[in-house]
Specification:
This protein is of the alpha+beta class. The chain has a five-stranded antiparallel β-sheet. Pfam families: APH.
Length: 284
């Protein structure tokens, strides 16, 4: 329990609600056995959360035959000056937790499921007439994919912070893309839930979601298995993930893509794990 959250939890009738997790944007609490609370940091905008809820509803409607679940907002309210978002509870535990204990064939199948899900995000029917950000407050949107990639780099280099000198200078080496798809861009083990030996849900669409090359989710899901970001992933897991890329014809562009992905994340310098990863990938 975090003291500053207690008044909100009391107002919701759940002063003893267990905390499930925490990110840069919100803390997450369980509200009984069917709902979760995303309690935004002080100063968060309800308008931004309404836009996120609309995107999540579009994603849920666009899943089609895809087997994994995605978040769905049930209500948004403001309590004690805090934005509180109540969502449907999704089944499973984070894949990051399963990595800490799973062994052998079970571990391999969970890892392949995680990677396969990354390749399926682009099948979700969310379409726009641009390449660019969906959930960012400073959304960058361009008519061409390469223009978006370059503009994103330039914005990251212009932001203040100790990593602003690290982003790559150009997008040379990044493959082009003419067909825009939904990209989650934060498919890492903590944002994928597993249950009964399979992937059950993908969470945390929103802030980093974009319309771009669907392959970005494949490359980033592999990149986020690096030790700084996924300490419970082992060298065998990373070798399997690289082989998965090879089998799909994605390995040749992985190094270039990882450089752009790490450049994107340089704004998150206050996260020690992300900062260490970006520095290792991008340091000259």
């Amino acid at each position: 329990m975090v003291a500053e959250d207690l008044a909100v939890l009391r107002a919701l009738g759940a002063p003893e609600a267990p905390r499930l997790g925490e990110g840069g944007e919100a803390r997450v609490y369980a509200l009984g056995d069917r709902q979760v609370l995303r309690l935004l940091r002080p100063g968060a905008s309800s308008d931004q959360q309404i836009a996120r809820a609309e995107l999540l509803a579009e994603i849920a409607a666009g899943r089609g035959a895809i087997a994994f679940a995605t978040p769905e907002v049930e209500r948004i309210t403001e309590i004690e000056g805090r934005v509180a978002v109540v969502e449907r509870l999704l089944p499973g535990i984070p894949f990051s937790q399963a990595l800490a204990v799973a062994q052998g064939e079970e571990r391999q199948q969970l890892l392949l499921g995680y990677l396969d899900v990354a390749s399926q995000i682009g099948d979700i029917a969310v379409k726009r007439d641009f390449f660019g950000d969906l959930g960012s407050e400073r959304a960058i949107r361009r008519a061409s994919y390469r223009d978006y990639l370059q503009a994103r780099l330039e914005m990251t280099r212009a932001l203040p912070g100790p990593l602003s000198h690290l982003p790559i200078e150009t997008i040379e080496g990044m493959p082009d893309c003419s067909s825009a798809s939904l990209v989650h861009f934060d498919i890492f083990p903590g944002n994928v839930l597993v249950d009964a030996g399979r992937v059950s849900a993908v969470i945390d669409f929103g802030a980093t979601s974009m319309i771009a090359d669907r392959r970005l989710d494949c490359w980033s899901a592999v990149a986020y298995l690096d030790a700084e970001l996924s300490p419970d992933a082992n060298p065998g897991d990373r070798a399997l993930a690289l082989d998965w890329l090879e089998q799909r014809g994605l390995a040749a562009d992985f190094a270039a893509a990882r450089g752009w992905i790490a450049s994107y994340w340089c704004f998150a310098h206050d996260d020690p794990k992300v900062s260490a990863w970006c520095s290792r990938i991008l340091a000259p």
